[in-house]
Amino acid sequence: MSDTPQIWYSDSSDPVMNLAFEECVLDDPGTRLPSLVLYENREAVVIGKNQNPWLECDPERLEHAGVPLLRRLSGGGTVYHGPGNLNIGFVVPRNGFDRRPQLELVAKALVAFGIESEILERGDILVGGRKVSGNAMCYRSQRVLHHITLLVDANLSVLRTVLEPAEPEIETHAIASNRMPVANLSEFNRRIDIDSVRHWIVYTFNNVYSVGEHRSARDLDPACLGERSERHRSWEWKYGRTPRFLAPGSEDTRLSVRGGLVRAVLTRDGTERPLQEPMPYHPKLRKVSLLTGRTNG
What we know:
- By secondary structure, the protein is α+β, with helices and mostly antiparallel strands.
- Helix content is 25%, strand content 28%.
- The longest helix is centred in the last third of the chain and has 16 residues, at 194-209.
- The radius of gyration is 21 Å and the shape is globular.
- It starts with 5 loop residues before the first strand and ends in a 17-residue tail after the last strand.
């Protein structure tokens, strides 16, 4: 490890830009190990790399509400980003990687507020039996991005609403979120806020690794930020990367969906009728009789 860690701050609240930001920190050859990444987004729903958006939320409802749906580069479950939710990332060596030290660093920072927490085996952090933090990892050949969400004083009623699935009857092997009761840290200490939590995360990081050198998006390659942002905005990344699934159709049929596109209709007798022209999946298609006959059969 370098003798001088780095602390990366984003002054943007754009969830697309910040997902690109942490990816570019991970991939930039000038990033030292360990590095700490910190940002706060405006409202967004962020699914894991291997998740089904229609099983995790309602994309159409999000669009009408002006809340973007995004797919991150790491695995794990779906999370709500928004004001009052601090995003924390650690870029550390892959060799000998263990997520426990990063989680313990966060838990140690919370002690400064008189908050004792519990770390579950899968990496969730609980306070008073309720989840205040989730985590996920993205692996590179030599590095790991271990990012953590921390509910400080987020709007939990919005969180619960935006994470209601559009189509709970989907059949898939995609990773499903583990839904748990959640809480804000502010419920356990009324004086806590994002700035104070951020301060103590940095303070604890400096104590564990030595004082970090401050960096920002201005220290990254603009081409990297632009390319990653463009990918995160694309339909192909958000929906086209969805693992194959079967969704309910009309008249006891099922829709076979690959790459976010309906490719065939499975009839009640098991016959597969491929579509002449695959179409983007939408839950409303279950109301259309065999997709208005647009099949080869």
